[in-house]
Amino acid sequence: MDIRLQRLTEWVRHIPGFETASPEPVSGDASFRRYFRVWQSTTGKAPVPFIVMDAPPEHEDCRPFVAIARHWRQQDIMVPAIAAEDLALGFLLLEDFGDHLMLPALAQANAETLYRQALDELVKIGQVSSPGDYPLPPYDEALLDREMALFPDWLLEQHLQLTLSNQERALLDTTFALLKESALAQPEVTVHRDYHSRNLLVLAGRKRPGVIDFQDAVRGPVTYDVVSLLKDCYVRWPEHQIADWLEYFRTAGLAAGLHRADPDTFRQWFELMGMQRHLKAAGIFARLAIRDGKTGYLDDIPRTVSYLRDASARQPALRHFHEWLCDRVLPAIEQRIGPVPGQESSQL
User: InterPro entries recorded for this chain (predicted)?
Assistant: First the structure.
């Protein structure tokens, strides 16, 4: 018996209009959270859908989500409204943004529109201050280090079963230091921290994306979210398209006062920030498979590591890392997981 679901059902049925609600599974994500759809019944009106979030308190703290959601909504960021909450139980009743994620909605005909809308929303997020009741944590040196360590710890050693020599560890240390230095040198903005096509929804009748999964927001580098979006771990675009969208965002961010960087500086920030992001993501995908049994994420590792290959190839200071990645890591990924995409491949 699903005790959490039973408690969630009892909780939501105490809310007016939901007395007979039967939660229907919608989805889970890479965390311990689960989501269910319920319908509010009002006499003389059509039923209205809502989402119930189940976030077990022993695994998930709802307070950042609630504080950020309320503050961002007040600042006109397109996040779901909170209709009811019980932080002790870990239940939230949320506005329903529907099921139309950006990723499956993408096609060549609509990509330009959807990405520009997502980039416009990102400029707005970057300008938002911290909530008064929840100062956003800094994307500091310690957090950057912990994230990059996921790559050797979970992907290389645990999943690929590679034994790293002291020389290889020194190479990684040098690479990580360069990436960290670049990240910390960037202007600081509000960072969603997981802004990509599976966390954005296409909303009917609106020209802005719905934004979800924002509870881990921090204050950090101006290029972090844009590289999450444009070098998405779940879909890959041709280089010329990425460059066009990045310049669109750079120009909009400049006008909004988020930075003062010229195109070359901004692109360099973007490239190195992307490497930090993809080291982290590749490690997380391996950890999700090993620790949590979510093996579907393994399929995203070859694409994610292909971004590392291509970005490091453009950095003379990272030549040794690039050669090691190509000679040592990519063959192991292809043997144990699957083929690594070529440089200009796209899924659309």
Answer: Aminoglycoside_PTrfase, Kinase-like_dom_sf
